């Protein structure tokens, strides 16, 4: 009703639903790091994996907040395992990418490639 | 020799830093995240950077959790966290300077400066921990005092014989923090937790 009143196209016109479900860039980086590490994906390894992939220092708070968010979306799952002496015996939380997480990663990659289709990289200014 | 090697491999951040990290973590993450950062500190940061820079790395990581946990809400709440941290730093700086210069009456002014820092840190703790009603009243009372102090400092600075730029800046900071604390805390009170 409101789009008609305001003479705006409805949500379907832009396929908003699909775009909204895409992962953010940092979420993709975290999810990919978990996928690459497979059975070794716990906090420290993930943090180092992302720093290596992005080639910069990353705040641990941002990584753990993203892991929490991805777990709430059921894109990853976690389990606890015993700690080692070097970490003061504190338990480790290991993560794994769920089937829904793999699907989300594949869809994000496909959507990005589709967006870039027809554009030559690196882009040149048209101004 | 063996004890020396053991000491190097078991190098740890200062206890207060570890406690600070655990304080800002959610109950679910306390053990796992603190363990991850300790492991990274011992195996990578301390051997590569040395104790001082490794401690700074650990502090930066801890602050990133304060930022994430307290900025999960509206922008005003995030801004208040950072302003409170600036106010706390100002209070600590004032206390240190008073004790270095030791002008007449510095004891009372040091106590006031420490109170400012504690009030500001309590505000950060309130935001991070989503404090209850008693904590809220304490924070509001502190904010009222902070605002009054800011107004008084600026008034005396402007009307007094010597104008000091830092007093104007610090006084303004206190007033801004007081106003924002009232806005954020009372908003939480009437609209529920943010």
Low-confidence stretches of chain B: 1-8, 190-194
Spell the H/E element sequence of chain A: HHHHHHEEH
Following the backbone from N to C, one meets helices and strands of chain B in this order, namely HHHHHHHH
Average pLDDT over all residues of chain A: 84
Number of domains of chain B: 2
Measured by residues with Cβ under 8 Å of the partner chain's Cβ, the largest interface is: A-B, 21 and 24 residues
Count all strands of chain A and give the number.
Answer: 2
What Rg of chain B, in angstroms, do the CA atoms define?
20 Å
Find the CATH topology of the domain at 25-108 in chain A: Arc Repressor Mutant, subunit A
Q: How widely separated are the two ends of chain A?
A: 39 Å
**How much is the radius of gyration of chain A in Å?**
19 Å
Mind explaining what this structure looks like?
Chain A has 127 residues and is mainly alpha-helical. Chain A is built from seven helices and two strands; from the N terminus they run H-H-H-H-H-H-E-E-H. Chain A has helices at 2-5, 11-14, 16-21, 25-37, 43-54, 60-72, 99-116; strands at 76-81, 92-97. A two-stranded antiparallel sheet of chain A has the order 1-2. In chain A, helix 4 packs across helix 5 and helix 4 packs across helix 7 (99-116). Chain A is elongated and about 60 Å long. Mean pLDDT of chain A is 84; it is low at 1-20. Chain B has two domains: 2-67; 72-191. Helices cover 84% and strands 0% of the residues of chain B. Chain B contains eight helices and no strands. The longest helix of chain B is centred in the middle third of the chain and has 27 residues, at 75-101. Chain B starts with a helix and ends with a helix. Classes of the chains: A mainly alpha (127), B mainly alpha (194). The A-B interface holds A 42-44, 47-48, 59-62, 64-65, 80, 83-84, 86-88, 90-93 and B 9, 29, 31-40, 42-44, 60-61, 63-69.
